[in-house]
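Worked Example 4.2. Consider the chain below.
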Amino acid sequence: MKPATRMFLDGKTLIVMDEAGQIVPLDDTPTRIVMALHQHHGGMSGSQLAHELGISQPAASKAARSLVDLGVLRRESLPVAMNVKVYYLAVTLVDDNAMKELQKRTPRIVFDLIRSKFGKQDKVAMTFIDDMFDYVNGLPEESRPAVVEAIMKRLTSGEGHGKDKEL
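Applying the procedure from the previous section yields the following structure tokens:
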């Protein structure tokens, strides 16, 4: 499994996307852990997570470990107590406000085109667009137009997004 790169909320459902653009489903407990850490705006220990969620510490630790393996969380030891592990979000959670800001800066024709490639899943399309913007903006300025043109050709050529094809 490839590491997670993005998480976003779709109503009350947390969706995690790996670096290949595949959606990774999460069970209830891992989702609740991510939401607790997002709302807490900082790290929490396994016992704090268990208390916050009203579950056993082993259940919280098991779910947190699965999120660490997925790349959603990072786990660090406290400097003063090496046996205490604190969990932090390692991936940005894209919420509705972030989506609205991204939609404002995305031309509608680009959004509609990319949205059609993702089965009209708006948040998945917006996440892809955000990744695309980040990629293009990280390139030398003189090469950006050619890269954008290549991406748009690929998108309009009818080639889909899936396991056999990468955008």
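The chain is about 50% helix and 20% strand. Residues 44 and 74 are 11 Å apart (CA to CA). Compare this with Example 4.1 before moving on.
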